[in-house]
Amino acid sequence: MDRRGFLRTAAALPLMQSLLPGLAAAEDVYPSRNITMIVPFPAGGQADLAARPVAAALERILGKPVIVDNRAGGGGGSVGNAQAARATPDGYTLLMTLSSLAVLPEADRLFERTVAYEVSQFAPIARVLADPTLLAVPASAPWRTLKDFIDDARRRPGEIPYGSSGPYGTLHVAMEMFASSAGIRLLHVPFRGAGPALTSLLGGTVQAMAGAPGTLKPQVEDGRLRVLANWGAERIPSFPGVPTFIELGYRDVEMYIWAGLFGQRELPAPVMTRLRGAMAQAAASPEVVKTFSAVGSAVAYQDAPEFAKFMDRDSARLIAAVKRIGRVE
Fold it and tell me: Which N-terminal stretch is annotated as signal sequence (predicted)?
C-alpha cells in the first residue's frame, strides 16, 4: 500500500469503527429467520400436543415462523433427539421432547449400543406439561378394574399385547415399571410414537397402553377407551374417578410424561434469555392454556433453572427404574 492509500484508509477508520456496533447489533438480533422445533415423535402424542400451541405462541411473540418438524424414528424419540443435539447451537433448531430424553442413552448402554446422544448436550429452556401417565384399555375389554387386568395377565403370561412409543420410551418404561411391580408379564408391541400406538389400541391390535391425559381424554369421552389407573402421586381433575397405582398398593409405580423445550448446551446466553422470556409468555398465553385445558392437561410451566432441577430428580428415578427392569424387548 502506498502512502496516499494508507492515509485514506486511516481517515476512514473512525467511520468504520462507529458503524461496527450497529452492524454487530444487527447480526445479534434473534431471531432473524425461521425457527425449527423438532418433535421426535409422530403427530398425536404428548410432545406434539405440547409443541403445536407453543410454537404458534412463540411465532407471535418472536415475530418469526416456528415450524414444528416431526422426526420420528429409532424408538422412543432417539433419532429426533440426536438430530437436535447435533444441530448448530444458534437457537434456530429447538427440541420439544419428553421424559424419555434421559432414559434412552441409558438404554443404549444397557444393550451395549452406540449412544445416540447425551443429555449433557442439551440446555433446558422450559417445561410446559407434566402429566401423570394413565393406563388405558378398549372400552370393549373385559377388565373393569386394575385387579381384573392383573388377574387376567397372571392367567395368561405374555399374552396381553400393549403398545408403546418405542423401546425404552416413556410409555414403555411406565408399563414395564407396572408389570415388574405387579409380577406379571405382558407382550410389548413398539410403535414409532404414541399416536400410532393409540391408533393401534383403538383398532384392537393391542389391548393396553400407557398414555397422557391429553391424548386419551377425547377417546374416553367418546366411549372408545377405559382408563384403569393413574401413575401419578394423586388423582387428577380430568380423571377424578381413576385411582393411582400408589393408592392401589403399588407404591413404587409412579411416572409422569412431561414435555419440555430444549436448546443445545452451547446456546449463546442472549439467545437463551430471549427464549426463556418468550416461553414464559407463551405458557401464560390464553391460547396455550385453553388448548391444553381442552384435552385435560394443565400448563405445568417451569423456567430453565427449576426445570433443570426437576429433570435431574425425575431422570434419576427413571434411570434407576430402567436399571431395575433390565433388558426387555
Answer: 1-26
